[in-house]
Specification:
Elements: E1 4-8, E2 13-19, E3 25-30, E4 37-43, E5 51-52, E6 61-62, H1 67-74, H2 83-89, E7 92-98, E8 103-109, H3 113-124, H4 131-149, H5 152-164, H6 178-182, H7 186-196, E9 202-208, H8 212-222, E10 248-253, E11 259-265, H9 273-291, H10 296-303, E12 312-317, E13 322-329, H11 333-344, H12 348-351, H13 354-371, H14 375-386, H15 395-401, H16 404-414, E14 420-427
Parallel strand pairs: 3-9, 10-14
Antiparallel strand pairs: 1-2, 2-3, 4-8, 4-9, 5-6, 7-8, 11-13, 11-14, 12-13
Length: 429
């Protein structure tokens, strides 16, 4: 396939695209005059993908929780050299992350970009799993899990997810549990790797003052071509009831003051592409109007001494799940919760004024345009949106299309007493 070029008049950006023979999609945004370059190589594979049909098989397989994150750790293992040292010698910073929906490997550099790109593609495509190195990793990840379990901010978040969701794996810690990672072996890792790290399930995004032809040349030379062509991966998610799991989860931990998450579980799921991203934008605008630092609610609670500047809200959602979280620290979290419930019972038109909508929409546009000065912001957001079937280059146009009536409709359907939960971590007495 020939190179395709998408252009955005509004953003004054060009996006180059080519699908390689292996099925890998390669995207590139040129940034003339930038000294820094950034590449991100990502798989459409996250911690929620625990039940799937492995490539070349017919029956679904349930794998241990935390295996996607475990696999990310293990790909940095190679028989000879330390990969971090190799990148460091090239003057590049390498990193990786696993979230609920994707696994990404990335680096930024100001020199030796093409050598670093070749190294990135090479190590992600050459897994090296042995019984010994898999068992050694269990101890390292167990320590990581324990560290997070002792973190009140992490616990209040996952307790909130546990309260909202009945069956959906989004309620499970991305790293899994100490019990679940003990069941991981090299055979299971190879099954997950061969299924989800197939080039047809991956994307490579590059940004910087570079030439697309040279990028494609490196990709061509670095890619292994002995992959089995994958049809669409069959992922199996459990049925998730609209009902919440528990109204409230409280726990005591080492913390200076009580911290809380108030969660609204999304019922409007099953969306992808433009519809999903628009819902995300609309919900985040509502949360900023109602709970941002310029809101009446925020300022009233702040004056009363019920919250501090750590208070705010955000929405996150993908095709199979979604939730709004209002988070903060308070001496009386239940009082904050009661006041929030009183707030959402008021008519939408009295809470969400059109002038506030216009102001927050313009602020959101401004923040997005500011973000475009960062190549990391562009790269990470590009990949995240790409896996939901949407191109970053279309984001501004979609944001401009959001109307006042959209936020009224969304408020009435999403912010209800039926789908709200409360998670609190209280200090130890």
């Amino acid at each position: 396939m020939d190179t395709k070029i998408y252009e955005s008049e509004k953003l004054k950006e060009k996006l180059y695209y080519k699908k390689m023979d292996s099925g890998l999609k390669v995207f590139f945004i040129p940034k003339k005059g930038y000294t820094k370059q950034y590449a991100i190589f990502a798989a459409d594979y996250g911690s929620i993908d625990n039940v799937f049909v492995p490539i070349g098989e017919k029956d679904p397989l349930k794998v241990p929780e935390g295996i996607a994150h475990f696999l990310e750790h293990k790909l940095f293992e190679s028989p000879e050299n330390n990969l971090f040292e190799k990148f460091s010698k090239l003057g590049a910073n390498v990193n990786a992350y696993t979230n609920f929906n994707q696994t990404a490997y990335l680096f930024s550099s100001t020199e030796n970009f093409f050598e670093s790109l070749s190294l990135l593609i090479d190590f992600v495509q050459n897994p090296y799993f042995t019984d010994e190195n898999v068992n050694k990793e269990k101890g390292i990840i167990a320590q990581e899990i324990n560290m997070y379990q002792d973190n009140p901010g992490w616990r209040v978040f996952f307790n909130c997810l546990q309260a909202m969701y009945n069956e959906h794996p989004v309620k499970i810690d991305i790293a899994g549990t100490i019990e679940s990672i003990q069941k991981i072996d090299k055979e299971l890792l190879y099954k997950c790797y061969n299924t989800f790290y197939n080039p047809t399930n991956m994307v490579l995004f590059v940004i910087g003052d570079l030439a697309f032809d040279e990028i494609l040349d490196v990709v061509e030379k670095s890619q292994k071509n002995n992959y089995e062509k994958a049809e669409e991966i069959k992922r199996i998610l459990p049925f998730e009831d609209k009902k919440i799991n528990k109204k409230i989860i409280e726990e005591k931990m080492m913390t200076a003051a009580p911290i809380f998450h108030i969660g609204f579980k999304d019922w409007d799921t099953g969306l992808t592409g433009e519809k999903l991203i628009k819902k995300d934008l609309v919900t985040n605008i509502i949360l900023d109007i109602l709970f941002g630092s310029s809101s009446t609610f925020y300022n009233d609670l702040y004056e009363e001494g019920l919250i501090n500047t750590n208070f705010g809200g955000y929405y996150t959602g993908k095709e199979s799940y979604g939730h709004s979280l209002i988070v903060g620290e308070s001496k009386e979290p239940k009082k904050v919760y009661e006041k929030l419930i009183q707030l959402i019972q008021k008519p939408a038109e009295t809470l969400l004024l059109e002038e506030d909508f216009n102001r927050i929409k313009n602020k959101t546009i401004g923040e997005f345009l500011m973000g475009l000065n960062s190549i990391e912001f562009i790269g990470n957001n590009f990949v995240d949106l790409y896996f939901t079937d949407f191109l970053l280059i279309d984001y501004l146009s979609l944001l401009e299309k959001v109307e006042y009536k959209d936020i009224i409709q969304r408020f009435n359907s999403h912010f209800t007493e039926e789908n709200v939960v409360l998670s609190i971590i209280n200090p130890l007495e």
